[in-house]
Amino acid sequence: MTGRRDAAQARWQHGFDQLRAHTAAHGAATVHLHTVTDGFTIGRWAARQRERYWARRLAPHQVEGLQALPGWDWGHTDRDRWAQGFAHLQDYVREHGHPTMDTTTIHDGYELEAWVARRRGNYHRGNPNGPRRWRCCPAGGGR
């Protein structure tokens, strides 16, 4: 049993090391599901850690390690992800005075332009995320 436990811990440590390296390179532990780093599917690994957390299957040292990473969150709902993206957009606008950004904009380690692109895509497909859409526009702002 110890051999299996050691192997599982080694796999977890490898994933954590990959996420820590990604965080050091990008400023935050925010990864999309399909993010791959050095051939390792770090996005899927991070998603599994969130699932294990909500199922209460992470060891305390694993929880502490993940929580210590800048930008790590346990959010797993669409509402949580939307709120996180919108908060980054608000910060970006406060800092830059406008919401215009290039296709590679990362704000505090968060892939902000990708979030904005998904919102635009939803809008153009006729699904503007309900009332949340209006929070993105200033009073009287364009549609």
Short structural summary:
With 143 residues, the chain is mainly α.
What topology emerges from the helices and strands here?
Elements: H1 2-26, H2 42-54, H3 60-67, H4 78-96, H5 112-124, H6 132-136
Structure description:
This protein starts with a helix and ends in a 7-residue tail after the last helix. The protein has six helices and no strands. It has two domains: 66 residues, no CATH class; 59 residues, no CATH class. With 143 residues, the protein is mainly alpha-helical. The chain is elongated.
User: Would you identify the regions where 5 or more consecutive residues have pLDDT less than 50?
Assistant: 137-143
Number of domains: 2
**Portion in beta strands:** under 5%
Structural class: mainly alpha
Determine Rg (CA atoms, Å): 18 Å
What's the β-strand tally? 0
How many helices does DSSP assign? 6
Termini separation (Å)?
A: 60 Å
* Outline: elongated
Largest sheet: none
Helix content class: 55-70%
Mean pLDDT: 81
What labels would you give this structure?
143 residues, 0% strand, 2 domains, mainly alpha, single chain
